[in-house]
Known about the structure:
By secondary structure, this protein is mainly β. Helices cover about 5% and strands about 35% of the residues. The chain contains one helix and eight strands, in the order βββββββαβ. The strands form two sheets. Strands 1, 4, 5, 7 and 8 form a five-stranded mixed β-sheet that branches. Strands 2-3-6 form a three-stranded antiparallel β-sheet, with no helix packed on it. The longest helix is centred in the C-terminal third of the chain and has 6 residues. The N and C termini lie far apart (about 65 Å). This is Prophage protein.
Amino acid sequence: MAYVFDKGTVEQKNFMASEKFVSFSRQVDDTSYAVKTDAFGHKVIPAGTIYPTNDAKAEGITINEVDVTHGPQMVGVIVEGYLFGQRLPVAPTAEAITALKKITFTDTDAAAKPQA
Length: 116
């Protein structure tokens, strides 16, 4: 006899505007500003989180959700590509948009983009 239980559902919007992107591995832990606790009590950093912070120190956007409940974990961080900024868990700030020089947000207001 098998034991069946609900593992939950994942609700994540597609924030990729193109299939082509460049990413690098970075390490994250439970001290990140973006840590959320899921329905099972796990500490997770959602996919689409601006890494490491949503400000002038931004380096990229996390590719996938990562569980940091039991310690630091590696995560892919997009550093170049085309994304939908309004579909991220938290929209990028003007400072983050400026810092992410090789990421193009295809749906951000032109007024929020820095002038060249």
